[in-house]
Design goal:
The protein is an alpha/beta fold. The chain is built from 6 helices and 7 strands.
């Protein structure tokens, strides 16, 4: 039976870093996977509060679409919130943005950020998803899972909340290379090894989690809630 799955990410590339292998596995199985990227993803690179040039926003959105195509994701939406300044936006506006997309797509599973990430946009994305998916009788979301993002989840060192403690492991042995190929479209976001957001580190994380559960490569998730 085809399932509807949504990834809610704060920035372009988070969706691939956190759940790219899982997205590729699910689309290969025939599931419908949609991605909502909340932030525009480029303004914070510049020493100004002015919005980034529109051409840069368009460019990174196109990169996101191409990355999504590698993973089999055809439904990619962008909310355009200010990069690394979600805390300057009324929280209700973030929640309503997520709610509107949930109401439209009606997913049964949502993947999003970990609550204790270093990046403020990640934390607020998690809170907005948790609020938007509150299990009222008409909520279609039965399952919420948190993913890790290298250089944010690990660099908080458990000081902004509980450390990432996964209990769900998705075997991406067959889709790890597609995840890495999708990340290649975000060349400006990837760093050379031994940076936590290098391709080497992403591969190593998949291998490490895989070894935890006896698989070659895994994406790990922390279960927020499941309704069966």
């Amino acid at each position: 039976m085809t399932a509807r799955v949504m990834i809610v990410a704060a920035h372009p590339d988070d969706e691939v870093l956190g759940a790219g292998g899982t997205a590729a596995r699910r689309t290969a199985a025939g599931d419908d996977v949609a991605v909502l990227i909340l932030g525009e993803g480029v303004t914070a690179r510049y020493a100004t509060r002015d919005p980034a040039p529109r051409s840069l926003v368009v460019d990174i959105q196109e990169r996101a679409r191409r990355a999504g195509e590698v993973l089999g994701v055809k439904d990619m939406r962008f909310a355009g919130l200010p990069d690394n300044r979600f805390d300057a936006v009324d929280f209700l506006d973030i929640v309503k943005t997520v709610e509107a997309r949930l109401d439209e797509f009606r997913p049964s599973t949502v993947y999003t950020h970990h609550a204790g990430d270093l990046n403020v946009d990640h934390r607020l994305a998690f809170q907005a998803v948790l609020t938007a998916t509150r299990p009222a009788p008409d909520c279609p979301v039965l399952e919420v899972q948190s993913f890790e993002v290298p250089s944010s989840t690990d660099w908080s060192f458990g000081r902004l909340g509980a450390s990432f403690s996964p209990s769900v492991f998705v075997d991406i042995s067959e889709t790890l290379e597609r995840k890495l190929a999708a990340l290649a479209h975000y060349a400006d976001e990837i760093r050379p090894a031994p940076h936590a957001r290098s391709l080497d580190a992403v591969r190593a994380a998949a291998t490490r989690w895989g070894a935890t559960v006896g698989r070659r490569a895994v994406e790990a998730f922390e279960c927020v809630r499941v309704i069966q």
